[in-house]
Amino acid sequence: MQYTGLDQVEDNYDRYALKYGPVLMALCGELTGPGNVPRLATSAADLPHLLEPVEDRPLEFMILGYPGYRYVPYWMVDQETFTCFPIVQPA
Questions:
Q1: Tell me, what's the pLDDT at 4?
Q2: How far apart are alpha carbons 19 and 28 in whole angstroms?
Q3: Are 25 and 17 in contact (CB under 8 A)?
Q4: Contacts of 36 (CB under 8 A, 6+ apart)
Q5: Which pTM value belongs to this model?
Q6: Is residue 12's pLDDT more than 80?
């Protein structure tokens, strides 16, 4: 789901939410990148192929090539830094 809200980073950056079935996923980790929004250098279509399930942690995924970041269901985020709309765009 592409972000089209008011909080745009810049016109040339595409931001997408990731859903796992009906569950909105949050990208947890340090918020660095343009406008403090993490950038995943992949296409939105290819992003699911980079997800690696975390053993013994249902609905938690590491991202291949992005140590320090992980996707968790939005409702599971507590005190962590996160975004639901990272920049998802090939380099």
A1: 57
A2: 14
A3: yes
A4: none
A5: 0.84
A6: no
